[in-house]
Structures are given as C-alpha cells and as structure tokens.
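Let's study a protein:

___
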Amino acid sequence: EIMPSLVGSEMCIRDSRKCARIVGDTMGKYHPHGDSSIYEGLVNMAQNWKLPIPLVDPHGNFGSVDGSGAAAMRYTEARISKYTEDVCMKDLSFFKDQFIPNFDGTETEPTFLPFQVPNILVSGSTGIAVGMATNIPPHNLREVINAVVKIIDDQIDENGETSIEDILQIIKGPDFPTGAEILGTRGIEEAYRTGRGKIRVRAVTNIEPMQNGKNRIIVTELPFMVNKARLIEKIAELVRDKKVDGITDLSDQSSREGMRICIELRRDVNPNVILNQLYKHTQLQDTFGVIMLALVNNEPKVMNILDMLKYYLKHQEEVVTRRTKYDLNKAEERAHILQGLLIALDNIDEVIKIIRGSKNVQEAKAELISRFDLSEVQAQAIVDMRLRALTGLE
C-alpha cells in the first residue's frame, strides 16, 4: 500500500516527497490504517540495518541501529530506491487487469507488485497473524539469483531435477545486513529443508591487549535486529548486579566508519571467560527462529527453500508472458496501421480525391473503408497522415 503511494502521488522517481504526503496518500487512497503504522512501515523499508537492500531511498533522520526513532514525518522525505525502480515498478503496467478498486471505489490499486527477484527471500519478512507467524531471514541477492538460474538450467535439461542439496551448495545461509556470525550449519539446513529451524547468531568480537596489561573486548558486528543501546544497558546491568565480574569500563565508540563497542577488563580476569558469560546472558549471541510461511493462492503454507524459489519462478513466467503479449499486441497494432498506410500510398491519387471530395472526416473515412476494405483504425491513420509522409525519404 505504501509502494503504490510512492508512485501514485505524482511522485517522480528522482524527486523526494515529504513523508507526511506519502502517508496521507496511502491513508486516503489505499487503506485507512493509522498514520503512525504507515510511517513506521515506510521507515522500515528505508533502514539499511533491517533490509540488505532498502526499498526506499530516505532523506533526513530515519533512526539508527541504536533504536532511536525517525524524525516526525513532516521533517523527512523519501523516494523509491533505484533497486525498487529497476526490479519492481517496470512491469506493473502489464498487470492493469489485476488492479482492484480501493476501499471507497475512487481509485484502483495493484493486488501485488511484480518483483523481478524473489524479494521475500532477499528482504526477508516478519509478521504475526491469527494463530500463525512468519519469520524469513534476508538473503544475499546474488546467491538467490544463482539458485533460480540453477533451477531454470535443470528444467531445460531433460534429465535434470534440482534438489535441496543443489540449492544448499549455492545459498550457504542467510545474509544479515548487520553482519555477525552464524554458528554451525545444522539450523540452516533444517530451516531450508523443512521451512522451520533455529539459527544461532553470534556477534563478531576481538580481544585486544591494552598498554597497561589489561585486555579489552571489541564488538564490531551485532546479530540481526539487536538494539545496540539496549545491549550496552544490559551489560551495564550485569556488571551492577555482579552477574559478570571483571568489566571495568564500557563505551560505545561507533562512528561513520562502523560499529565499535569497547568493553575494558581487569588485569586478573580471563577475557574468554567474560566473553562466554556475555554470550550467555546478553544478545551478543542470539537465536533467529526461521518460519518460512507465505501465502500461496491466498492460503498460508510453510515451504522449504526450493518450493519458495519454484513458486517465484511460476510468478516470473506469468510476468514475462504478460510482458511479451503486451509487446506483441503493440507490434501487431502498429503493423495493421502500416498495412493500411501502404494501401493508401499505392493508391495515393485516388485517396486524395476521396478526401477532397468529402464534406467531413467521417464521410472521408467511410468512403476509404468501403473503397479499399480498410478497418476503422487504418482509415483514421490515413486521414491523420501528413503530406510530408509522401516524400521519397519518408
């Protein structure tokens, strides 16, 4: 609902628009959600620590990985990102017949967006409904596309049949935008084979010696969806409550160059022991519970990764078929007009005589249709033809 609004509000792809206007258009034209939930959805699509490739190009304060919120929508601006423009909006015109009336019947809206990539895997998805939930992690765009190409190649080969093992060789695992490390492959395999699994993700840390004989733990990458400010608060609580003993200083040294949390330790403690305690008690180590549930023909279905890619391919076949039929119809319509113009050029003196001898355009068209067995469209093209079209070069 937000994406059509980004296009529908007379929005040039290259120009940003006030987010308040985008939210208002979404609420007024497409669905009467609350304005705060619409803006929250727009902000999520612009944050590069939540999506590997943001769908919206933001301008202004759109929050941070610390958990600080975006500025009010009257201060921020947004436009469709180049990625969305390239892989989503190009083929939308071929699906005009699948547009449905909006809530008050004054506008139409698309029932889906024809992404040229399996965006449900690339961007991931999180949602809770009545009695069910979905939690699909983000993936690397290149790996996902290579897996799709593998399935297509195997379909072309008469004896080829793509297996889960083939896909696992190409898609090694989720690709979280915040980085971090995935522990082991068992959780990934279980999630990809059955549609459900638990993936353990651990922060990227490094133990550095300091000049005074102390050590410090430097954290440079956090697990997906972990709030940095809350994590630091949690470590401070553990030190205060004496659950972790040996931390002397805690500071957030993150900058434009990247994330950096510095945890200084006492001389007499083993840094690896402290690190393991932090993994146990904080979100420096976290679990991502994968539930690959999506709507197939409007029915919720838990799928393995191969099924998801195959359903995407079915959708892509429809997109390509519609695009090709659209191009074919345009070419046939043009050829039909050109055939009429050729007839006119072959009998140009008689055509000019008929047009000059007619009282009005309707009479001229009727005479041309009866004399040369033309269609309405061809006759219209002939009466619209300019004299310059009769030159040798034209």
